[in-house]
Specification:
Layout: H1 9-23, E1 30-32, E2 46-54, E3 57-65, H2 78-90, E4 98-102, E5 112-116, H3 140-158, H4 181-190, H5 193-198, H6 201-212, E6 221-223, E7 232-235, E8 238-242, E9 249-251, H7 254-266, H8 282-293, H9 300-322, H10 339-350
Antiparallel strand pairs: 1-2, 2-3, 3-5, 4-5, 6-9, 7-8
């Protein structure tokens, strides 16, 4: 899943080798070895590992590029992702040390940015880490501490005052709409005729419920968007860097909090294995986050339903476009099975 078709890698290597000395303060000469793809790289972006010698000293960098074909999102704003990491880092959120963003699309065929390599461990997506990984080797107490540390960083993101920054391209709902409307519209668009035909009827039913009951009020904060433990580089159970900001927006941070829980749940219980010991259940997680942020969790069940529906849509799109089912043990509809109990729970609460 890590390798991407992006063109002539040797040509890209040479151009990055010439580009880097201008972006590294005091660097006179840079030599790059053959470019490689990390095994942990996801489907939505291109990640290249750059092993370099800078004035004779070994250094490692990471280059992020726009994919030639993105099965999920028509718009892929690398400049915004870079800017959000700058903002997050300035507010104490651990992010990779940034080198530079390059807007010139003629250099390697698209815009890109480069950051220093962050040492640490990334929980596996394929197969999910619950099936055996460095995370399963931790004790229950260690996993509990790891999740708590991650939750504290999530709360840091949700505490950033975005009114202090000019981010006109950051997705948000317009006045008069639900604060979640831009997210509902995005995932409803992904569920086009081709995807909708393949989706389980219960997912379409859940999507209609989400559309009809979008909350009008709530906190509006910076949301990471793809908030999950697999998008964190971990070191000594602490987040060393928060990565992958392509789904960020201004929205109710309950969207992030719920996603943090449900991606883990779907990729364990949804695939037939128990959640790892030491991880908090929904009420405990939400109570911890509320204590950290002081924000309301009143609409949490709605966001639970929204996130399970959007996860089912994302997976269906990936199954159709990139054949992800083979990497998930052939389990194509595992997220869809989670919609019905949440839909029943939401309707019961709404009575």
């Amino acid at each position: 899943m890590a390798r991407k078709e992006i063109g002539d890698l040797e040509s890209i290597r040479q151009k990055l080798e010439n580009w880097l000395p201008e972006k590294l303060p005091g660097a006179a000469q840079v030599h790059l070895n053959e470019l490689t793809f990390p095994e942990e790289s996801g489907e939505s972006s291109v990640t290249l590992l750059l092993n370099a010698k800078v004035d004779g000293q070994p250094m490692r960098f990471v280059c992020r590029m726009k994919p030639l074909n993105n099965p999920l999102f028509a718009d892929y704003d690398l400049m915004l992702q870079y800017r959000l990491m700058e903002i997050a880092g300035a507010n104490g959120v651990p992010v990779p040390e940034l080198v530079a963003y390059e807007p010139d699309t003629t250099l390697v065929g698209c815009d890109f940015y480069v950051m220093h390599f962050t040492d640490g461990l990334i929980p596996s997506d394929n197969p999910p880490y619950a099936f055996g990984s460095w995370v399963t080797e931790l004790s229950a107490q260690q996993r509990s501490q790891m999740w708590r540390n991650g939750l504290e960083v999530l709360a840091q993101i949700h505490s950033i005052d975005m009114s202090a920054y000019d981010t006109p391209s950051l997705p948000r709902s317009v006045d008069g709409q639900s604060i979640l409307q831009h997210e509902i519209d995005k995932f409803a668009a992904i569920a086009d005729d081709n995807v909708a035909t393949s989706l389980a009827p219960i997912v379409l039913e859940g999507l209609e419920c989400v559309k009809a009951n979008a909350p009008e009020s709530g906190s509006v904060r910076l949301c990471w968007g793809d908030a999950r433990v697999g998008n964190v580089i971990w070191k000594d159970l602490q987040p060393a860097a928060v990565i992958d900001w392509e789904m960020a927006s201004l929205c109710d941070p309950l969207m992030d909090l719920s996603w943090w829980y449900w991606v883990d749940y779907a990729n364990s219980v949804g695939l037939g294995v128990k959640r790892l010991s030491g991880l908090p259940d929904r009420p405990e997680l939400y109570q911890q986050w509320q204590a950290l942020t002081g924000l309301s969790t009143e609409n949490s069940l709605y966001y639970d339903l929204f996130n399970v529906v959007r996860f089912a849509i994302i997976l269906e799109k990936k199954f159709l476009e990139v054949g992800l089912a083979a990497d998930m043990g052939g389990e194509k509809s595992y997220a869809s099975a989670l919609v019905a109990p949440l839909l029943d729970e939401y309707r019961l609460q709404s009575q």
